[in-house]
Amino acid sequence: MDALSQTAPAPGQGGAKEFLDQLFSAGVLTETGVDGLYGRSGDFEEVIERFETLVTRYAGADKAERIHFPPGMPRPMLEKSGYLKSFPQLAGCVHSFMGGEADHARLLQMLANGEDWTDLQQATDVVLTPAACYPLYPTVAKRGPMPDGGVLFDLKSYCFRHEPSQDPARMQLFRMREYVRIGSPEEVRAFRESWLERGPELIRSLGLPCEIDLANDPFFGRAGKMLANNQRDQGLKFELLIPVANEKPTACLSFNYHQDHFGTLWGIQQADGTPAHSACVGFGLERVALALFRHHGMKVADWPQSVRAVLWG
Ligand code: ATP
Ligand code: ZN
Ligand code: MG
Question: Where is the Aminoacyl-transfer RNA synthetases class-II family profile domain (predicted)?
Answer without folding.
Answer: 159-304
